[in-house]
């Protein structure tokens, strides 16, 4: 905790010092000539302040030695965080199957729908969506996962006790209810421009792959993609209209071989799913869309409507039943009432 107050996140020199002498000794050495950032208070007072802030918002502090620490962060080497502040659910289990989704803040309606749809579909298949909580694609990705009762992790560029941006407070609160909010920055910290870029490496490291949905040539989302590539994670991009400046960064990554073109959740899962796991060939959303439009129906009728094998449809409907999206009725299968509201919220 002291280290996070004495050094800026992502400082490679501090990371090398910790690797060489250990966290306690590193903090002692830094404390000789540094004061806690953001205040002139002595270190003990600053640490006590962090503990009190954490108590007020039920935040947990994880360090690399904790069993709950997400070990994939170790791939960052000397750039790994010295701690994580976490609010919400259990972090490590939710990241076992995770995909990052990032993109433009000022996204188009096309980009928003793509992000919401991809996130919802992946969440229905048990994938956790990791993003940064910003306006635009980030917010759409979180919303898509939440709309179908899925899990999502918000990696903040400030303290976990402050929602940022303020206009996304509702998204932040919903993530806390069913997912996690994570940050390596001290409680009370305010996001700054350089912190977003530093934070992006965590989004990349925590996930099996990163999907970019709309990004201009200079988009910050491309820094997340670059971090993912450097970590040997999968980098994927959703194409857009060839005339769209918002998709210019995606098109460039695809053209230069920096990202794989993906069209849907099946394409994404084909890349990130564990070896031996059957790739998803059917989108749960196809079944939900049909049921929402046609009402209760038997498996055979649903299968005929979506032109799929009845056994495959039965398996998918059973999975959706477990997720609380559909329910068995006398006439077969129907959308659950709560699911209808959540499904409608994604714009389908």
Report on the structure:
The protein is an alpha/beta fold and 348 residues long. The protein has two domains: 182 residues, Rossmann fold (3-Layer(aba) Sandwich); 62 residues, Arc Repressor Mutant, subunit A, CATH 1.10.10.10. It has 16 helices and eleven strands. The protein has a nine-stranded mixed sheet, with helices on both faces. It has a two-stranded antiparallel ribbon with strand order 10-11. Strand 3, helix 6 and strand 4 form a beta-alpha-beta unit. The longest helix has 16 residues. The termini are far apart. 49% of the residues are buried. The model has no long low-confidence stretch (mean pLDDT 88).
In brief:
The chain is α/β, with parallel strands linked by helices and about 350 residues long.
């Amino acid at each position: 905790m002291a280290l996070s107050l004495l050094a800026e996140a992502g400082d490679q020199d501090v990371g090398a010092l910790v690797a060489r002498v250990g966290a306690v000794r590193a903090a002692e050495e830094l404390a000789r000539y540094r004061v806690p950032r953001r205040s002139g208070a002595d270190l003990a007072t600053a640490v006590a302040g962090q503990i009190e802030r954490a108590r007020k918002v039920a935040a947990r502090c994880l360090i690399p030695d904790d069993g709950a620490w997400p070990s994939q962060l170790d791939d960052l080497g000397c750039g790994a965080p010295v701690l994580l502040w976490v609010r919400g659910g259990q972090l490590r289990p939710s990241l076992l199957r995770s995909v990052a989704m990032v993109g433009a803040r000022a996204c188009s309606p096309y980009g928003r729908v793509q992000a919401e749809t991809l996130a919802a579909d992946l969440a229905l298949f048990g994938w956790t969506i990791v993003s940064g909580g910003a306006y635009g694609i980030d917010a759409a990705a979180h919303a898509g996962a939440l709309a179908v009762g899925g899990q999502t992790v918000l990696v903040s560029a400030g303290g976990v006790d402050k929602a940022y941006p303020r206009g996304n407070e509702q998204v932040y609160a919903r993530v806390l209810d069913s997912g996690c909010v994570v940050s390596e920055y001290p409680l009370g910290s305010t996001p700054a421009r350089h912190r977003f870029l530093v934070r992006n490496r965590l989004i990349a490291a925590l996930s099996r792959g990163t999907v970019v949905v709309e990004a201009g040539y200079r988009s910050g989302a491309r820094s997340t993609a670059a971090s993912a590539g450097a970590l040997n994670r999968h980098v994927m991009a959703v194409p857009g209209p060839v005339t769209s400046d918002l998709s210019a960064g995606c098109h460039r990554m695809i053209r230069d071989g920096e990202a794989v073109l993906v069209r849907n959740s099946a394409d994404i899962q084909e890349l990130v799913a564990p070896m031996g796991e059957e790739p998803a060939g059917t989108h749960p959303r196809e079944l939900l869309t049909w049921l929402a439009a046609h009402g209760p129906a038997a498996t055979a009728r649903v299968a005929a409507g979506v032109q799929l094998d009845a056994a495959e449809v039965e398996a998918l409907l059973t999975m959706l039943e477990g997720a609380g999206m559909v329910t068995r009725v006398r006439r077969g299968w129907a959308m659950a009432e709560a699911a209808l509201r959540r499904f409608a919220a994604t714009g389908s």
